[in-house]
């Protein structure tokens, strides 16, 4: 059985508490995950695989995946840049 996955294009950067965090917001995430709580996922951002990471709540009913400095360097991208994303439920 194939794992459920969600594919989308996103821009790095999520507004949280009047700051822009280096995260990717997952569209339709509450419906996709069936919860408004933090969940564990595998995420592929462009060619970089992030295994068993937390999809944190945004505070506005959705989820986001954080991209630390090391991942952004691997991507060669930063806040404001577009990426191709695949999120797979764990």
Q: Any chance you could write out the topology, listing elements then pairs?
A:
Layout: E1 5-11, E2 14-16, E3 19-21, E4 23-26, H1 29-33, E5 39-45, E6 48-57, E7 63-66, H2 69-75, E8 82-89
Antiparallel strand pairs: 1-8, 2-3, 4-7, 5-6, 5-8, 6-7
Describe this entry's structure for a reader:
It is a single chain. By secondary structure, the protein is mainly β. Helix content is 13%, strand content 51%. It contains two helices and eight strands; from the N terminus they run E-E-E-E-H-E-E-E-H-E. The protein has helices spanning 29-33, 69-75; strands at 5-11, 14-16, 19-21, 23-26, 39-45, 48-57, 63-66, 82-89. Strands 1-8-5-6-7-4 form a six-stranded antiparallel beta sheet. The longest helix is centred in the last third of the chain and has 7 residues, at 69-75. The two termini are 13 Å apart. The relative contact order is 0.33. The mean pLDDT is 93.
